[in-house]
Design a protein that fits this description.
By secondary structure, the chain is of the alpha/beta class. It has a single domain, classed as TIM Barrel (Alpha-Beta Barrel). It is built from 12 helices and 8 strands. It starts with a helix and ends with a helix. About 45% of the residues are buried.
Length: about 240
C-alpha cells in the first residue's frame, strides 16, 4: 500500500518545554505522521513527554540512540516499547550483538515498534571520520557497512543522511526502512548539517521517512511550512 506524504513526514520536536511540544502536537497532528522526541525533551521530562505527545493522536518516534552493552540495551528497548512508541533508534556502532539484543528486548513487549539504526551522524563528514575517529572506510562505505550489520541483526531499517540514500536503496530491499534527517527546503540554512537535501530530492532517492526540524519550528508560519513540505513530498511520490 502506498504511503502518504503525511505518513512519511517526521517532525523533530527540538524544543525546550513540554508546553511547546504539546502545542506543536495539537497544531500539526493532521499534517505530521510522527513526532520525534530526542534527548533534549526526554532528559527533562522522561516518559511523560512520550505520553503527552501520544495523547494528541500522532505517532511518536523516540530517538533514544541506545548505545551500551547488549543486556542494558535489551532492557532499555523493552522499556521503550512499554511507552507505546512507534519507532526507536539504536546506534549501529554498538555492534551486532547489541542490535540483536535490542530486537529481543523489543519483541517481549511490542512487536509493532520499529527499530532503526543510526549509521553516521549528519553532522559528520569523511574528514572527521578519518582524522578524528580513525575510520578507514570512506563515509558512504561506512554507512553501507553499518546498514548491513543492522539488517543482519534484524533491525527494520537505518537512519542516514540523504547523500547515502541511493547506495542504500540499491543495496537493500524496499521493506528495509530508510529514515533521513538533514532535510532542508530551498532557502533554509543548513546549520550543523554537513549532508542535506530538499524533501523532494530525498524522497526521489528512496527515503521512506524524512525528519524535519528547524525548517518548520523556526518558520513564521509552521502550518504553512509543513504544508509546503508535504506538497513537495507529494510531487516526488
Amino acid at each position: 500500500m502506498e504511503t502518504s506524504a503525511r505518513e512519511r513526514l517526521i517532525l523533530a520536536l527540538d524544543v525546550d518545554t513540554q508546553k511547546e511540544a504539546e502545542f506543536l502536537g495539537r497544531e500539526l497532528k493532521d499534517l505530521v505522521g510522527m513526532f520525534k522526541v530526542g534527548p533534549r525533551l526526554f532528559t527533562r521530562y522522561g516518559p511523560k513527554i512520550i505520553e503527552a505527545i501520544g495523547k494528541e493522536g500522532a505517532g511518536v518516534f523516540y530517538d533514544a540512540k541506545f548505545h551500551d552493552i547488549p543486556s542494558v540495551v535489551a532492557k532499555a528497548a523493552a522499556a521503550a516499547a512499554r511507552m507505546g512508541v512507534n519507532m526507536i533508534t539504536v546506534h549501529t556502532l554498538g555492534g551486532l550483538a547489541m542490535m540483536e539484543a535490542a530486537m529481543e528486548g523489543l519483541k517481549v513487549k511490542a512487536k509493532d515498534t520499529k527499530v532503526v539504526g543510526v549509521t553516521v551522524l549528519t553532522s559528520l563528514d569523511s574528514s572527521i571520520l578519518r582524522e578524528e575517529l580513525g575510520v578507514g572506510r570512506d563515509l558512504p562505505q561506512e554507512v553501507v557497512h553499518l546498514a548491513r550489520l543492522a539488517k543482519k541483526a534484524g533491525l527494520d531499517g537505518v537512519v542516514s543522511s540523504p547523500e547515502e540514500l541511493e547506495d542504500l536503496r540499491q543495496t537493500f530491499p524496499k521493506n528495509f526502512l530508510l529514515v533521513v534527517p538533514g532535510i532542508r527546503p530551498g532557502g533554509v540554512a543548513s546549520n550543523e548539517q554537513h549532508r542535506f537535501l530538499t524533501p523532494g530530492e530525498a524522497i526521489r532517492r528512496g527515503a521512506d521517512f524524512i525528519v524535519v526540524g528547524r525548517p518548520i519550528l523556526a518558520a513564521n508560519d509552521p502550518l504553512e511550512a509543513t504544508r509546503n513540505i508535504l506538497k513537495e513530498i507529494e510531487r516526488s511520490l
